[in-house]
Design a protein that fits this description.
Elements (H helix, E strand, L loop, with lengths): L1 H31 L12 H25 L8 H26 L9 H23 L4
Helix pairs in contact: 1-2, 1-4, 2-3, 3-4
Amino acid sequence: MDDLLLFLHVLAAFGVMAAVVVFTVVLTAAGSASTTAASPAQRMLPVAQRLSEIGGTGTLVFGVWLALKLDNYDIFDGWILVALALWVLAAGVGARLGILLQEGPSGGDGVDSRARLLYALYFVATVALLADMIFKPGA
C-alpha cells in the first residue's frame, strides 16, 4: 500500500510540473502574439488549469496520507511543514494565474506584468516544493 501511495503522490507531482510547462507555453505564445484571437497555445490553458488542480490536490492528499502512515515521517517535520506552505503558495498563485490568463491582457498586446509575476511565483514555489520533496532538509 505504501508503494501505491508513493506512486500516486509522484504521479500527481508530474501533473503539477506538466502544468508549469503548459503555463510556460501559453505565456510564451501570448507574449509573442500580436492579435487578440485565441491561439492554439491559449486553448491549452484549461489543460494547464486542470493539471495544476488535479496534480496539486493529489500531491496534497497522498503526501499527507504518506506522512501520517509512514513510521519514519511525522506531519510536523520541518520539511513537511515547508512543503505544505509551498503547496498553499503554489496552489493559490496557480489558480490566480489561470484566471488572469483566461481573462486576457488588460489593455495592449501580449501578457501583462501581473501574469508574468504570478507565473514567476508559481514556477519558483513549484520548483522549491520539488526540491524540498527530493532533498528533505532536516530529515
